[in-house]
Structure to design on (590 residues):
């Protein structure tokens, strides 16, 4: 396979991700998958893919890619990032946000520095032609499985595409994508909240923490007031849920993300509810984060609401309007100011 | 038989439920965990995504929109009543192990700290039939017990930044094999030439929770021969009583 997207510069950490690899955690194999599955779905919807198709997850800084097929349709969703098309002469054309675009052979696609969030997703129509491993194309770098060559993309790679030409049809857009961070991230206490003092639980629910740069796809390390253990910080290892907040001996919480290990021996004071995990996955180092405890019923209701929003997104895909109907400058401004892209404003 | 204590349900967010049987490493607890794991898998409950057995609890990952927590707990009740404490037979593996000094850089230290000779450390380790309690830490990484009491040591004070893959190691009452190169704080006794984790295989991990493992000492030469075959993907280790393909 030689035809596809050639990587000229890879970005900081660009990996292929889909909705993950559930079903093998009893063998110690992490689930992985997109840190922000809502944006992954949005990107796929615009190019007409099934919502869980593997796409490039871009962290912090995007890649420069050259088109080495006849044509390809792409769309970007997630953190704000300029998406430019560079022609042979090197003239840049900026693509309006939340709109699919088709590129011809020889054109280049450049995604700049992300703003307002840590990740964005570049979906290609038809998807990438890589074999699934254990049912998923998600890259899990640590164990060398999945994705493109089981690692982040690198300069010189040619990412194979399932289709060698874009389908003949109009471009599509999403009128809006709500990426506003919750004021407080909702958590369900347990399973080891009894390993912490009452004061520690109060601190967790009242204090503001900062996301540190030592954050990766496995875990988000927080800085802030330390949480005091009531009966030591070693437990007999048990399972780890998505969004689990584990607290090692230094008292500083770590929220476990997509590449989390399947089991662990630190007490887990709580877990972030599943509805707030996509927003959590978007947080950049330096971001402030606070928590509020909710009941399991409230957490389930929140998940129902999140999935209803995803269904709403799916129904909202429309044909892209051209010729100045959309005010691009306004779109970009909205995107940078609030992190929400709203073409109706 | 003493009365069996009822397990506790503990929340871990809205997509995972912990069924906790105890707070220690114990073969009876492990047998209950593995029994319930088998019962849940056999029941194929819609909405249950997967189960993860650990030393003392079973984590049930589920989709709450298909199976709300209250319904999940109702479905688990009758299965918990059917838990059997007898260990399932499990598969028996004989894993080749090279205990040369360079393969097991901590052999001399372990011998000194336990008051045994190096030969005795190797003899005790390779004479033990290990029970795989659970998998975790790395893909295919087994937590196996129980180590003879005289070999029990806490983890190393200074964990290594790079433990080579295939390293056979001990800490506390457990033994394991590092399936990938990784940081690690366990004491290294030897190395196996077989790949306990090989993403090229349809089943990339070798052992599973509930299996039994014994280490068979091999010479350096045998180690090299098997390593070459394993690396080429032609070494086919099967559990006892199962014919090779």
């Amino acid at each position: 396979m030689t035809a596809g997207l050639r990587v000229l510069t890879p970005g900081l950490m660009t990996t292929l991700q889909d909705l993950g690899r559930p079903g093998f955690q009893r063998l110690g194999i992490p689930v992985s998958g997109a840190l922000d599955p809502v944006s992954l779905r949005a990107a796929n919807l615009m190019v007409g893919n099934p919502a869980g198709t593997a796409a490039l997850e871009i962290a912090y800084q995007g890649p420069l890619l050259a088109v080495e097929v006849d044509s390809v349709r792409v769309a970007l969703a997630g953190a704000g990032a300029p998406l430019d098309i560079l022609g042979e002469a090197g003239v840049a054309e900026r693509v309006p946000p939340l709109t699919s675009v088709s590129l011809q052979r020889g054109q280049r696609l450049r995604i700049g520095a992300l703003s307002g969030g840590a990740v964005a997703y570049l979906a290609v129509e038809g998807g990438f032609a890589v074999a699934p491993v254990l049912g998923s194309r998600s890259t899990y770098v640590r164990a060398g499985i999945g994705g493109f060559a089981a690692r982040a993309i690198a300069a010189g790679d040619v990412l194979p595409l399932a289709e060698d030409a874009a389908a003949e049809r109009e471009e599509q857009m999403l009128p809006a994508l709500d990426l506003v961070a919750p004021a407080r991230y909702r958590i369900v206490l347990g399973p080891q909240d009894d390993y912490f003092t009452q004061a520690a639980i109060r601190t967790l629910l009242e204090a503001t923490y900062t996301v540190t740069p030592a954050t990766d796809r496995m875990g988000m390390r927080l800085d802030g007031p330390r949480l005091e253990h009531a009966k030591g910080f070693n437990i007999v290892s048990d399972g780890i849920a998505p969004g689990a907040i584990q607290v090692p001996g230094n008292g500083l919480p770590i929220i476990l993300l997509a590449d989390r290990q399947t089991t662990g021996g630190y007490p887990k004071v709580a877990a972030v509810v599943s509805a707030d995990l996509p927003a959590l996955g978007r947080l950049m180092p330096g971001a402030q984060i606070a928590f509020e405890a909710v009941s399991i019923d409230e957490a389930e209701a929140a998940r129902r609401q999140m999935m209803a929003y995803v269904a709403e997104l799916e129904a909202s895909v429309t044909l892209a309007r051209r010729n100045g109907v959309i005010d691009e400058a306004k779109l970009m401004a909205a995107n940078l100011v609030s992190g929400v892209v709203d073409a109706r404003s | 038989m003493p009365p069996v204590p009822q397990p506790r349900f503990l929340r871990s967010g809205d997509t995972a439920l912990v069924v906790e049987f105890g707070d220690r490493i114990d073969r009876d607890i492990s047998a209950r965990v593995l029994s319930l794991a088998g019962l849940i898998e056999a029941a194929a409950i819609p909405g249950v995504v997967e189960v993860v057995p650990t030393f003392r609890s079973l984590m049930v990952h589920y989709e709450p929109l298909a199976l709300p927590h209250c319904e999940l707990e109702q479905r688990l009740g009758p299965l918990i009543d059917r838990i059997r404490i007898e260990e399932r037979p499990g598969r028996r593996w004989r894993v080749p192990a090279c205990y040369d000094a360079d393969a097991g850089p901590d052999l001399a230290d372990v011998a000194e700290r336990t008051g045994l000779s190096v030969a005795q450390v190797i003899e005790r380790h390779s004479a033990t039939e290990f029970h795989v309690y659970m998998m975790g830490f790395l893909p295919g990484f087994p937590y196996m017990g129980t180590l003879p009491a005289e070999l029990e040591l806490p983890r190393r004070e200074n964990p290594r930044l790079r433990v080579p893959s295939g390293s056979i190691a001990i800490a506390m009452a457990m033994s394991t094999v590092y399936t990938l190169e990784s940081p690690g704080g366990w004491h290294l006794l030897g190395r196996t030439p077989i790949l306990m984790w090989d993403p090229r295989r349809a089943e990339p991990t070798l052992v599973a929770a509930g299996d039994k493992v014994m280490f068979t000492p091999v010479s350096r030469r045998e180690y090299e021969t098997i390593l070459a075959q394993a690396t080429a993907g032609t070494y086919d280790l099967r559990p006892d009583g199962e014919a090779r393909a």
